[in-house]
Amino acid sequence: MKLLEDRIRKEGIVLPHNVLKVDSFLNHQVDPQLMFEVGKEFAKRFADKQITKILTVESSGIAPAVMTGLAMQVPVIFARKHKSLTLTDNLYTADVYSYTKQTTNKISIAKRFIEPNDSVLIIDDFLANGQAVQGLLTIADDANIKVQGIGIVIEKTFQKGRTLITKRNIQLEALAQISSLENGEVQFLN
Ligand code: 5GP
Fold it and tell me: Could you tell me one molecular function GO term of this UniProt entry (predicted)?
């Protein structure tokens, strides 16, 4: 998606350990107009799927997920992050190792928001090693609901997230694909 790539080129800052900072439009300050375009693009790419809900993880997945929900006219559920959880009776939970924070969080979704025939689209801001998406897939499996697709705003193709997901045979769409952040420079795939 050219609009997104242009913004990454203009405003992205490469940090150590292969982290791209895009806090001027996605991870801290949010550009609603750009996110709306992101939402419409996901809606277009998954138009042939019967989606009843969108799943994401707080906090940076929420903006693109809500805009996709708006474009697809479906509700959005964001998994909440907790350091530890003892009362998990009414929750679906999964452990997620955070690439940027280097800590493990439990993510959870209240069971009451999931219905038996739900068929969901997972949206997230970044795909690195696939741990966040894997956590949502675990929750979807536990809840016995179908995952129709995965939409990622920025994929770092040099990390192993895609390999992990494609093993599951789920449609994966990334709106910007970064093949390298070496020497502080953003290289896009193709
Ligand atoms: P994964 O679980 O795929 O290893 O990493 C995805 C999560 O880590 C995303 O939800 C995102 O919050 C964070 N993340 C991973 N790589 C980056 C990055 O390069 N920049 C930023 N801002 N967040 C990242």
Answer: xanthine phosphoribosyltransferase activity
- Best residue among 126, 137, 157, 182 to mutate for probing ligand 1's pocket (most ligand atoms within 8 Å of CB) is 126
- ipTM of model: 0.98
Write the pLDDT tens digit of every residue in 14-49: 999 999 999 999 999 999 999 999 999 999 999 999
Q: Is 183 left (phi over 0), alpha (psi -120 to 50) or beta?
A: left
Backbone φ/ψ region at 89: left (φ over 0), alpha (ψ -120 to 50), beta: alpha
Write down all domains in the chain, each with its CATH number in brackets.
Answer: 2-188 (3.40.50.2020)
CA of 140 to the centre of ligand 1 (A): 20
Check: pTM over 0.90? Answer yes or no: yes
